[in-house]
Amino acid sequence: MARVSETGIPQDGGSPVRAGVPEHGRVPKYYAVRLLVTELVDGLPEGRVLPTERELAERFGAARETVRQALRDLLLEGRLRRRGRGTAVAGAKLEQPLSLASYTEGVRRQGRSPGRTLVDLRSWPCPAKLAVELGLGEGEPVWHMERVLWADDERVGLESTYVAVERAPRLDVEFDPDSSFYSYLRERGEAFAGADERLETVLATPREALLIGTPPALPMLLIHRLSRDGQGRPLERVRSLYRGDRFSFTARLERSDPDS
Amino acid sequence: MARVSETGIPQDGGSPVRAGVPEHGRVPKYYAVRLLVTELVDGLPEGRVLPTERELAERFGAARETVRQALRDLLLEGRLRRRGRGTAVAGAKLEQPLSLASYTEGVRRQGRSPGRTLVDLRSWPCPAKLAVELGLGEGEPVWHMERVLWADDERVGLESTYVAVERAPRLDVEFDPDSSFYSYLRERGEAFAGADERLETVLATPREALLIGTPPALPMLLIHRLSRDGQGRPLERVRSLYRGDRFSFTARLERSDPDS
Questions:
Q1: Are residues B75 and B104 in the same domain?
Q2: ipTM at complex level
Q3: For the stretch B35-52, what's the b/e string if a residue is b when 16 or more beta carbons lie within 10 angstroms of its beta carbon?
Q4: A chain contacts of residue B213, beta-carbon cutoff 8 Å
Q5: Are B237 and B142 part of one and the same domain?
Q6: Is residue A256 part of a domain?
Q7: What's the gap in Å between the CA of A85 and the closest CA on chain B?
């Protein structure tokens, strides 16, 4: 079965062997059904509810279990979403810029309403590894603030912020958890000069899936951030987890890298 | 069961209800086993082979199917890797900078040997959508070059490059597929001035899993790149797919964003 990439150039077919890799032309049954469902979805507007598993199974002459596996793939990738007991066509993924702008600003730029719900805010004795990252002594008090991230009425992520209590002694009484922590820091005169980020894909843990309301083991995008103040000292450590089916990240690269 | 995050601060336990989210303390059995296996893995050096599923099942008093699910999770996340019929402790993920440096340069900086194997190189009439992106007329000839990416003796990704034939008319006879395409362009006097990238997580298709040698439906990191020449014109469109269990991406952000 031919497959067309997002550029429109077919990616399958051709000679039987390419560079030692057999292009045998056989595709697992569930994937063939996935292609048929994808074709169906491509022709439907966002929000349209799909026919039931049984109806799709009849239409495509496939077992319901096969249809379910194909739908599961498209749910994990964000082409479809749950709608009550059914399945609907999902909108495009949010595109969040990899920049020093906060989550709040990034979501607003896309015309969505950002929100944050506090899960936990308390101070802990700083563990050894985090102390090294934050330039603190082991055992010095550090805030852990955990918030669920919202876009409109949808939970889309989970963010843990670690910052020395010394940097923001009254965080627990002054700070509105449904606002931007960076704005709060700026108002307090803390310069926010740069950050190192590392982005990877992980599976949601049961607790994370519960907090974000996703199916367990959904692929997530995890961003580790260590930000610096104007003097180059570590300011905060952040662990941001975003639904892989709802988010993508963008970067604009300019020619300033001397090695490239 | 308490869970400790990578910062060392426990993420579970505490009050029964936090911000309306039940912290009920119950964890699926496979996840409890996953925590036990993670603890075991943390104490072992890279490359060490784990006890068999049966041995782990006996040790943890769990069903083999439960152990298998826990191991599958840790394989997908890259903590473990297949070693023959067994399972071994994996090394850290590669950290590839999001920069204009090529794959080749990024991998070399980490002391690994980059390699590329050609899957396909041929010219096609440019489809409409790609034509818009590349600033070409629909139907103008465009190269599609597809290469498997290697790090040492391991297949780690799959890259599709689309470039107008006019830009590199002799690509098929001049270019060594196991070298850097950017070096080739530079040698031909093509300036490479910047790029827009978009990064998301997707599942490997059966064909991609076959080419890269991964289990099907492994979460992958997909980077879409559109690069520009010195005049700001589109130069090439690239679709790079990296094993999510083997790669992470890093970015250094500086305070130059006027909106932040």
A1: no
A2: 0.83
A3: bbbbebbeeeeeeeebee
A4: none
A5: yes
A6: no
A7: 22
